């Protein structure tokens, strides 16, 4: 039994850019590459561990690209099993985009709003799946997580384990009883991370595209999991169609661009130039730096760039140079233009869209209160404004 494990594809995103048709296409391109790998390797199923979409209200273009890719799998008889991440979960009584794709038969949702247990018949036998979406109330979520009674069983979940050592987490591997499965497939953490619990592989494959400069990497993968023997065997299939993000640090002036080495490939990278000191944006050095960066954009050497001053967050959106893409204004854009931080913008947009649903507002605020990083960003924003 061979499985492909992928997560955090964020279809419909163009991050870290505010608007960019080229950047949005990157997410579709690499997702299609994942599907091609599944077909080439003749896997028995694809396990997607959350955030298939970047937004619970995808555009028609996003739906179209998702269906085109997923149809290739369904026509080959390869199930696409997915749990919902926070970006897939609808607000209030709206319908998740995952349910729409399940209705037309291109995927199977194994966990949408609560943990579920399934016996899935695959070409090479039955697979028991304990599936858990992004947890809103972790203790209740853990109580509902039941292991299937199967010879081969996996855990699929979209959450942050405590073993990552992050300021915010949801559950530990012992709390998940991870050692009682043959393989633990996780999503939500955007970097590749591998550990084990009692000899059982526990894997985050990472996102298929970097959503900000802190997630940059020259290598991205999906996981191939062989369950044909007593112990699971894990290997990696390398992705090629993602776009690189390059960080040039300690920039003193425009002359530093002469030593810039850009990655080779079909897609010009996004460039962050981080200044070594605060600088007047109208100074000669910064103007000359931008002129040289604009020239790189015109030549097609980079897609776009951002000049970052010391102390600025690295998670913001790069400035788009050259000819801007035409897009209609949206709520997301308006909020982002004010706060200039994706995490704070997402929090505010969720609050706005919750309307007069008091319970939803309460849940969003309590969730935000558990994140020291988010609270710190909001406090800094209030002081600045």
Q: Explain this structure to me?
A:
This protein is of the alpha/beta class and 385 residues long. The chain is 30% helix and 22% strand. The chain is built from 10 helices and 15 strands. Helix 7 crosses helix 8.
Describe the structure concisely.
This protein is α/β, with parallel strands linked by helices.
Key phrases:
385 residues; alpha/beta; six-stranded mixed sheet; 10 helices; globular
Strand content: 15-25%
Distance between the termini: 56 Å
Instruction: Please tally the helical runs, counting DSSP H or I stretches of 4 or more residues.
Output: 10
Largest sheet: 6 strands, mixed
| Average pLDDT, all residues | 87
What overall form do the CA principal axes indicate? globular
Oligomeric state: single chain
The helix/strand series, from N terminus to C terminus, equals EHEHEHEEEHEHEEEEEEEHEHHHH
Please provide the count of β strands.
15
Gyration radius (Cα, Å) is 21 Å
Which stretches of 5+ consecutive residues score pLDDT under 50?
Answer: 322-329
Biggest sheet, spatial arrangement of strands: 4-3-2-1-11-12
Helices and strands in order:
Layout: E1 2-6, H1 21-41, E2 45-48, H2 60-75, E3 80-83, H3 97-103, E4 108-111, E5 116-122, E6 125-132, H4 138-143, E7 153-158, H5 173-176, E8 183-187, E9 193-197, E10 200-204, E11 220-226, E12 233-239, E13 245-251, E14 270-275, H6 284-299, E15 304-308, H7 331-339, H8 342-353, H9 358-369, H10 372-384
Parallel strand pairs: 1-2, 2-3, 3-4, 6-7, 7-8, 8-10, 13-14, 14-15
Antiparallel strand pairs: 1-11, 5-6, 9-10, 11-12
Helix pairs in contact: 1-2, 7-8
């Amino acid at each position: 039994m061979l499985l492909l494990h992928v997560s955090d594809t964020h279809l419909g995103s163009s991050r870290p850019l505010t608007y960019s048709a080229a950047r949005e296409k990157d997410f579709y391109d690499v997702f299609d590459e994942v599907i091609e790998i599944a077909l080439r390797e003749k896997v028995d199923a694809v396990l997607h561990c959350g955030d298939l979409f970047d937004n619970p209200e995808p555009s028609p273009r996003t739906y179209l690209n998702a269906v085109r890719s997923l149809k290739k799998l369904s026509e080959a008889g390869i199930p696409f099993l997915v749990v919902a991440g926070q970006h897939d979960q609808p607000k209030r009584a709206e319908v998740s985009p995952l349910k729409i794709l399940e209705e037309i038969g291109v995927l199977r949702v194994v966990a949408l709003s609560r943990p579920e247990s399934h016996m899935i018949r695959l070409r090479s036998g039955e697979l028991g799946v304990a599936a858990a979406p992004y947890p809103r109330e972790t203790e209740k979520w853990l109580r509902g997580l039941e292991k299937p009674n199967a010879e081969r069983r996996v855990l699929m979940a979209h959450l942050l384990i405590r073993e990552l050592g992050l300021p915010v987490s949801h559950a530990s591997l012992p709390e998940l009883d991870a050692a009682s499965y043959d393989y633990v497939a996780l999503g939500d953490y955007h970097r590749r991370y591998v550990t084990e619990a009692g000899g059982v592989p526990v894997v985050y494959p990472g996102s298929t595209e970097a959503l900000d400069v802190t997630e940059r990497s020259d290598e991205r993968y999906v996981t191939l999991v062989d369950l044909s023997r007593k112990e699971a065997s894990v290997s990696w299939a390398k992705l090629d169609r993602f776009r690189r993000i390059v960080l040039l640090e300690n920039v003193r002036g425009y002359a530093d661009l002469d030593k810039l080495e850009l990655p080779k490939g079909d897609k010009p990278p996004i460039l962050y130039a981080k200044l070594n000191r605060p600088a007047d944006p109208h100074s000669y050095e910064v103007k000359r730096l931008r002129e040289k960066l604009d020239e790189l954009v015109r030549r097609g050497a980079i897609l776009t760039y951002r000049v970052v001053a010391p102390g600025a967050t690295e998670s913001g959106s790069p400035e788009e140079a050259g000819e801007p893409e035409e897009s209609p204004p949206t709520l997301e854009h308006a909020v982002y233009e004010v706060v200039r931080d994706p995490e704070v913008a997402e929090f505010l947009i969720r609050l706005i869209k919750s309307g007069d649903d008091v319970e939803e507002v309460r849940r969003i605020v309590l969730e935000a209160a558990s994140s020291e990083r988010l609270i710190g960003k909001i406090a800094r924003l209030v002081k600045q404004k």
